[in-house]
Amino acid sequence: ASPAQKLIFNRVNGKRPQVLLQQISAPEECYTLAHEENVRFVYEAWQQVEQQLDGSRSGESACGPVQYVEKTPNPGLKNFVPIDLEEWWAQQFLAKIENCS
Fold it and tell me: What keywords were assigned to this record (predicted)?
């Protein structure tokens, strides 16, 4: 987690600057065309892998991706619960909104 950015307002001629709502809200992330192409590529490739995995489970194809499963699970991971990244990002987003208001 990065530290919160400090807002600095410089007064011009001793006058109070006008603060717009847009300036107070968090800055929007800018995505380049290359970034969007990379995200699209990874998304489409993952969708293809998931389709192939579903097909191999139902016996449609003999070759394709293979899901790794440990033969002897690590006892230290017995109570491991995977994180739901979408839920975590949602909580982070809401926390930022609450801290700004």
Answer: Cytoplasm, Nucleus
